[in-house]
Amino acid sequence: MSDRDNNPVDLNLPPVLCIGDFPANANALVQARLAPVTLADIDRDDALRERIGAIVTRSNYDIDIALIERLPSLKIIATSGVGFDRIPVEFARERGIVVANTPDLLNAAVAELTIGLMLALLRQLPRADSFVRSGAWSKGAFALGTSLASKRVGIIGMGRIGKEIARRLAPFDVEIAYYGRTRQALSHESFAHPQALARWSDILIAACPGGSDTRHLVDASVLDALGAQGILVNIARGSVVDEEALVQALERKSIAGAALDVFEHEPLEASALCTFDNVVLSPHIGSATHETRLAMAQLTIDNVVSFFAKGKAITPVVSTNR
Ligand code: NAP
């Protein structure tokens, strides 16, 4: 690509507003290609605000209706991430504003983290690491863990990421089943309700979208069905799991443990979840690798450029509901 292609003026783009921040390598790309302005810029310049044609953001920032209403020339919201539960997609659509996300190219990173979290919990890796570092090893053996082999793994949301998790789990010699609103043409067994899937599963993975439709899909009844030997892995959205019910289930030992990348309130602080030995936590890092975040930023930019050059984003969000 030539320098000319990289120049936002030559690309004939309207001013672009950036909400939130991108990791350093991705930010350099966004700055070079789109030269975005900030909320502070539009707050002090009404003429600039009125000309904003695009928002670029990441999936962990809220784009609220009030902001969209302040931007009369807005044509596209391009989010770096696959989840769009923090964007009022229907409201945008009613105004003719396109929403675009970055599906697929983060499947591998999220699937890798999911399997990493699961193994970290089953084999107690965070505690094993502390055990060695603290010198406790010389005083006795470390507690036994649990094997992944031969377990039944249930996936809530057998979409792009769910399928990648299933594909990467296959060599671990597990049985896989899923729950979703649609029965798909897959060799895996499907269940008509998350409770039924949980009852079947040793390990239950949430990999569906967040938002009102899936809020507390994993509730007390699903955790009860998962049972005292069962573990929960959530890489979907915090809203998918009733966190209070999860804490109660952990306190009562009515499930065996949880591995969580996402939380009802992020960043997670001073939560009861931090007090359990049988819980492994990560700070919403499903897609957080250098390679993946750079590719996501590139597609976010390409969505904006394509929209203004050809009238179409490359990966528009097709629908929020069916
Ligand atoms: P996707 O391809 O759209 O798959 C979503 C799956 O969830 C589909 O199989 C869908 O099946 C199912 N689903 C949707 N609504 C549902 C509902 N109301 N009840 C039950 N199942 C439902 O999306 P994806 O690319 O795999 O991404 C999935 C989610 O992963 C994202 O939306 C995001 O929340 C999360 N994510 C997390 C991270 C992280 O850092 N932890 C990173 C990326 C993505 P049916 O249509 O048949 O129901």
UniProtKB/TrEMBL annotation:
Keyword Membrane tagged: no
Protein name: D-isomer specific 2-hydroxyacid dehydrogenase
Domain D-isomer specific 2-hydroxyacid dehydrogenase NAD-binding: 115-286
Entry keyword NADP: yes
UniProt-listed InterPro entries: D-isomer_2-hydroxyacid_DH, D-isomer_2_OHA_DH_cat_dom, D-isomer_DH_NAD-bd, NAD(P)-bd_dom_sf
Matches recorded under PANTHER family: 2-HYDROXYACID DEHYDROGENASE YGL185C-RELATED (PTHR10996:SF178), 2-HYDROXYACID DEHYDROGENASE-RELATED (PTHR10996)
Keywords for the protein's UniProt record, in alphabetical order: NAD, NADP, Oxidoreductase
A GO cellular component annotation in the UniProt record: cytosol
Homology family: Belongs to the D-isomer specific 2-hydroxyacid dehydrogenase family.
Pfam families cross-referenced by the UniProt entry: 2-Hacid_dh, 2-Hacid_dh_C
Superkingdom assignment: Bacteria
Residue span, D-isomer specific 2-hydroxyacid dehydrogenase catalytic domain: 50-317
Sample GO molecular function, one term: hydroxypyruvate reductase [NAD(P)H] activity
Signal peptide span: none
